[in-house]
Write a structure and sequence with these properties.
Blueprint lengths: L1 H16 L15 E8 L2 H6 L1 H6 L5 E4 L7 H12 L3 E4 L7 H7 L4 H18 L6 E3 L7 H7 L5 E6 L8 E2 L6 E6 L8 H14 L2 E6 L1 E2 L6 E2 L1 H14 L2 E2 L8
Parallel strand pairs: 1-2, 1-8, 1-11, 2-3, 4-5, 5-7, 7-8, 9-10
Antiparallel strand pairs: 6-8
Helix pairs in contact: 8-9
């Protein structure tokens, strides 16, 4: 009987702590937390859920692409999102796969930089947006691209497509390459997996980096409101901090 009780206590403790070793990555952050990021050009959707983010005191990072196609109304919405303390970051001018642009379609690196970085940044700068962090479209990257983009940005964010969730735990405040963990429907990750990563950030003094697109649209690239609320609840319960990506970048 005593052995059964002891086993129950240990099991419960492991479940609360997210005690699977694949989530462990010791960090040096004074305040552990999460960085919630959203990709693409879904500004109308983001703006719709701005009150929900505000009510949970979330400070998120919005990686914007296709700004050259934004309407004046969408630009105004993006400015309001920024005024609420969220970070407006960069996700490419046209959302091209950067690896394909050079190696498949035979463009030069200089052409890539002008088309997908410089031209888009100029448009955003003109309207009062100054992105200093970057996320790769489709997550496609290599070390050469990382180094090239660091001339323009404090950090680059790729995607964590594997089961080593610790890869998505930023361990310091001076990260150059981050690997966001998808939490959309398309990721096929369970709520348990996602919350375990949140708990691991708490246990290891790290920052969990999450990636979503739409909020609550039912599409494959959409995170449910219920999942976000579960994340918010655990963040509050554990006393975690919300980081923007620039706050955990070199």
């Amino acid at each position: 009987m005593r052995k059964n009780i002891a086993l129950l206590i240990i099991t419960t403790a492991l479940l609360f702590s997210g005690g699977c070793k694949k989530f462990e990555k010791p960090g040096q952050l004074k305040d552990p937390g999460i960085a919630l990021t959203f990709d693409d050009d879904r500004v109308d959707n983001w703006f719709q859920y701005l009150p929900m983010l505000d009510s949970a005191n979330v400070k998120a990072t919005f990686y914007v692409c296709k700004y050259n196609r934004f309407t004046p109304e969408q630009k105004q919405k993006l400015a309001i999102i920024q005024s609420h303390g969220h970070e407006i970051a960069f996700h490419g001018t046209n959302h091209y796969n950067m690896m394909d642009y050079v190696y498949r379609y035979k463009h030069t690196i200089d052409e890539l930089v002008k088309c997908e970085v410089v031209d888009g940044l100029k448009l955003m700068n003109r309207d009062g947006f100054y992105p200093i962090t970057f996320a790769y479209p489709y997550g496609a990257h290599n070390g050469l691209y990382d180094k090239m983009l660091m001339r323009y940005f404090k950090s680059v964010r790729a995607l964590n497509g594997g089961n080593d969730f610790s890869k998505s735990l930023a361990s310091t405040e001076k990260n150059e390459v981050l690997y966001g963990l998808g939490i959309d429907k398309s990721s096929k990750r369970s709520d348990v997996n996602v919350i375990d990563v949140v708990k691991s950030a708490f246990n290891n003094n790290t920052c969990a980096v999450f990636v979503a697109h739409d909020i609550n649209t039912g599409k494959a690239l959409s995170v449910t409101r219920e999942r976000l609320e579960k994340i918010f609840w655990h963040v509050k319960k554990l006393g975690l901090k919300y980081y923007t990506i620039s706050e955990i970048s070199n």
